[in-house]
Amino acid sequence: MYATPPPPPTVENRPTGPWPVVAAVLAGLWTVPVVLLPQVAGWLVEQIVASQGGGRPAWLWPVVALVTVLLVGLPALLLALLPRSAAVRATGRVWLGAVLASGALAVWRALPPVHHEAYLVGLAGTAALGALVLTRLARRRTPAVVAADSRRPGAVTLLAVAAGLVLLLPWLWLGALGGLLETVLAGLAAAAVGALAAALLDTGFWAAFTLGEPPRPARAVLLGGLVAGVALLLVAAGTGQSGAQLPALLTVPPAGFVAAALHVASRRAGDRGGRAAVRWPVGLAVLGPLAFTDPEEISLPLLTGRDVPYWTAVATGAGLAGGLLLAAGYGVLLARRRAGVPPRRVAATAALVLLAAAVLVDVVPGHPGLYGERLLVVLRAQADLSGVPAGTPGRAGRDARAAEVYRRLVETADRNQADLRRQLTRLHLDPRPYYLVNAIEVDGGPGVRAWLSRRPEVSRVLVSQRLRPLPAPAPPSRGDRPAPTGPEWNIRLIGADRVWAELGVTGAGVVVGSSDSGVDGGHPALAAGFRGGDDSWYDPWEHTRRPTDRQGHGTHTTGSAVGRDGIGVAPGAGWVGCVNLERNLGNPGYYLDCLQFMLAPFPPGGNPFTDGRPGRAPDVLTNSWGCPPVEGCDASALRPATAALESAGIMVVAAAGNSGPGCGTIAEPPAPYPDVLTVGAVDRQRRVTDFSSRGPAAGGAGKPDLVAPGAAVLSAMPGGGYATLDGTSMATPQVAGVVALMWSANPALVGDLTRTRAILRNTAAPVPPPTEGRCGGTGDVSGAGLVDAYAAVRAARTAR
């Protein structure tokens, strides 16, 4: 059915000594670590810089690409020009072409991950252009031969498709797709990269390894496969955003041996599947990490436990094993001197069986469907909360203020969102309105984002990140420490135990709101403190009806605020909870869900706009989280929310962050906001910890406000256990607990945020100056100092 393929290009293969081959081997041994190490190091550097609040270094990957091109390109160029051996010169040419292509592809990695669609367009276009240029150059050397029936794939092409499906299977099982546009673009990019690899490993390349009489197919598979594998390693290094390229570094190179075996078989059978032998295995191997992983989730914060990095490693290991088995199997079955190509019907059956298996794997153990990001549309008009009456001192006045704030917020949102909501509903974009910030969360990609950004009533459009599902939930975090036998060191350090014993104040009558990963409501240290009712728990992620927590972070922080048995600062206070973190990540929408619930709690299934109960709002909120750009927040994303809670008389306490000791690292909302009580961390010796983020905040605002114990803090964990954790997350709920003690001691202070902050600052104890990260002044490191519960409660008692 196919025209006879042309003879291989005439290549002069003059006798040569062993040294060119030795040089090629050394160049290959040099190339592999020079490619692998910078890729891993670049990802680690990017993650560490981001975790320390330094932002994403856009220059990093272009520099890595340039260094790789120089270090690999020079030896490859020498191999392409100097030796007389045809195989060695072919090796140099293909490695030189591959490293140049890799450098061109990797430049697109400078784009922020939030613009993933733009990255995929750049990747696809660059790879397609490279494939076109290489194909044109190859046609000048070898006349094109047109197949008699090019629409009917031969046995080799079908075997190549089968090999690619084997490499794709682990990702269908363990990964999940993004949005529609993102998935389509990932498919186009993978196809373009496959075409680029096929253009690099063309007929002329393979011919250099099959010269001689009689032909040596084993040599072509072994040596040609090794050289092709190094070339594919270079291509893989340039394919995928930061993190997503790491799996391809292991799963794509074995396709070189598969391609070698298939190419030998295609020449023997007169099959026109030579390019398909490379294009399909490489394209489908690349498609896995490109389409089925979110590069933003391959991150250091998710390395612990069985999260995306774990399952990505499992898929990579399975893909590598599959690639090696394919390489060995195809090499043995197809490259033997007298072996023939299986009949086309056999190859077609194998491809169809694997295609059916791929569909079955995706549907049954996998996660079929699309899991694209959503958009948070922030409107220009925000509620005017000036002149909200202070009312009478204490809870009654606070409740009246909260009710008025809630009324104004809802009225503003309803009035300004009505027309846009109707249009978004008509377009089936699933709008979810918010009032605490006048905003709407919707489905949509870059096109919808551009359309919304041009609307006059829209201030800006943020990408609200959405987590892709995991193959299996991570096991719940459990504590491995015994229950405490008395007040813990941190409780004693700030004098909370003296407040209970000498002043008789435990926080009774005050309610603390926890927005975090959840709370184990059945924990012995927390069960009695749950406020109860139908409006004390909200889970916008899983819609659970009672307090639960798998990760443990929220149970630990809530325990430090109100836990009994010596772990909590205000053990007599009540608590309510909301889940805004899943797998240690969130997005602006979920953060707003919980902050709205704290302003005006509502029953399960209730409408936050109409069913909110501001009279049931908790008094003080503990927030051990921050919303960085990678989750979709900009610097002012939550600013209207904290301003509204301030107007309502609800104290917002937030963690400074763990990006120290660098200066200016208090950057993730809501920590930098002036109406938030921002908390840093100290150790047992009252020294500010190295990880505690420093000020000044944006605009020169003095942050943090206070510090509290945050190193090796013992608190509750799901299942009734206990554990010690580090972080400003651990320090924050202790300050919230001190506020609860103050307001319990003097109910007239409830809702009086100005006087409460002043008392906390005036009674704080000094801490030793840090040895590093001084940031120009102690205020930008430790704020007013270490919170002193005993002094603060005594001062609160006498406040009038």
Description:
Keywords: Hydrolase, Membrane, Protease, Serine protease, Transmembrane, Transmembrane helix. Belongs to the peptidase S8 family. This is Subtilase family protein. GO terms for molecular function: serine-type endopeptidase activity. The chain has about 800 residues and is of the alpha/beta class. It has three domains: about 350 residues, no CATH class; about 90 residues, no CATH class; about 300 residues, 3-Layer(aba) Sandwich (Rossmann fold), CATH 3.40.50.200. A seven-stranded parallel sheet has the order 8-9-7-10-11-12-13, with helices on both faces. A four-stranded antiparallel sheet has the order 4-5-3-6, with helices on both faces. A two-stranded parallel sheet has the order 1-2. Helix 4 runs parallel beside helix 6 and helix 8 packs antiparallel against helix 9. The longest helix has about 35 residues. The radius of gyration is 31 Å and the shape is elongated. The N and C termini lie far apart (about 95 Å).
